[in-house]
């Protein structure tokens, strides 16, 4: 592209951190309290990037707009808030990726659709907040992904041009948002990725099967 890369933005759940176990825990508890049979964790995992909406849809068969949805969502979030960072941690290899970015002088940060206070809580617990050039949640602006507003917000906070950025995410909405912002995009195929369209078909500029492959991809760019 001929544009020097200066920043890497990460989605949070399923891209920077593996939070599937902690996000699924409220669903398991809610099913148990309602006398429902246990559900296999692997059936929930692809819906994790959709947050409460996706997990409630798969785990309790309730859709946004249904009469019980808001109450169940509030219950889910109340449970999740009490135990957000029990098992959540960086994906294997991601610590080395972040060290590589720091060593290369590339700034990085997080742009998630999760509430900003949740994003900050997780990053604080993992001692990453101070290293982030921007921490952006789905409610930081009124327009969550796939709208590019929050990516533009991150760029403004870090004083970088979107064309100098790459956005890495494990959901098709991440790629759509990054493209709408004029960024390069990478599909994180090691993440949750939903259960519909294969990430190789999302139209991203690249696909990585492991976090460490991001380092290889970066070496091939103009940085």
List keywords for this structure.
about 220 residues; alpha/beta; six-stranded parallel beta sheet; two-stranded antiparallel ribbon; 9 helices
Question: TL;DR?
Answer:
By secondary structure, the chain is an alpha/beta fold. The protein contains 9 helices and 8 strands.
Strand percent estimate: 5-15%
The radius of gyration computed from the alpha-carbon positions, rounded to a whole number of angstroms, is 17 Å
Largest sheet descriptor: 6 strands, parallel
Summed over residues and divided by their number, the pLDDT gives a mean of 95
In the sheet with the most strands, the strands line up as 5-4-1-6-7-8
How many strand segments? 8
Shape: globular
Count of helix runs: 9
Succession of helices and strands: EEHHHHEHEHEHEHEEH
Distance between the termini: 11 Å
Poorly predicted tracts of residues: none
Percent helix range: 25-40%
Q: What class, by secondary structure content?
A: alpha/beta
What does this molecule look like?
The protein has helices at residues 20-33, 41-44, 51-60, 69-81, 94-104, 116-125, 149-158, 172-180, 213-219, and strands at residues 7-10, 17-18, 89-90, 107-111, 135-136, 165-169, 184-188, 206-208. It has nine helices and eight strands. The longest helix is centred in the N-terminal third of the chain and has 14 residues, at 20-33. With 223 residues, it is α/β, with parallel strands linked by helices. The termini are close together. Helix 1 (20-33) packs across helix 3 and helix 1 packs across helix 4 (69-81). The chain is globular.
């Amino acid at each position: 592209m001929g544009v020097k890369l200066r920043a890497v933005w990460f989605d949070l759940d399923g891209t920077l951190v593996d939070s599937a176990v902690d996000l699924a825990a409220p669903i398991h508890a809610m099913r148990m309290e309602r006398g429902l049979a246990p559900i296999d964790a692997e059936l929930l995992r692809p819906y994790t990037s959709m947050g409460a909406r996706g997990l409630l849809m798969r785990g309790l068969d309730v859709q946004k707009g249904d009469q019980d949805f808001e109450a169940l969502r509030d219950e889910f979030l109340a449970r999740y808030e009490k135990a957000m960072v029990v098992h959540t941690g960086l994906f294997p290899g991601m610590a080395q990726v972040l060290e590589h970015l720091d060593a290369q002088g590339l700034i990085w940060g997080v742009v998630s659709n999760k509430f900003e206070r949740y994003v900050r809580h997780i990053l604080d617990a993992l001692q990453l907040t101070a290293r982030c050039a921007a921490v952006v949640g789905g409610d930081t602006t009124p327009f969550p992904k796939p709208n590019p507003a929050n990516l533009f917000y991150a760029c403004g906070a870090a004083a970088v041009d979107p064309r100098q950025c790459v956005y890495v995410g494990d959901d098709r909405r991440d790629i759509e948002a990054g493209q709408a912002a004029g960024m390069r995009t990478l599909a994180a195929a090691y993440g949750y990725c939903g259960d519909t369209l294969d990430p190789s078909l999302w139209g991203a500029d690249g696909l990585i099967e492991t976090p460490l492959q991001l380092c290889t991809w970066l070496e091939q760019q103009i940085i």
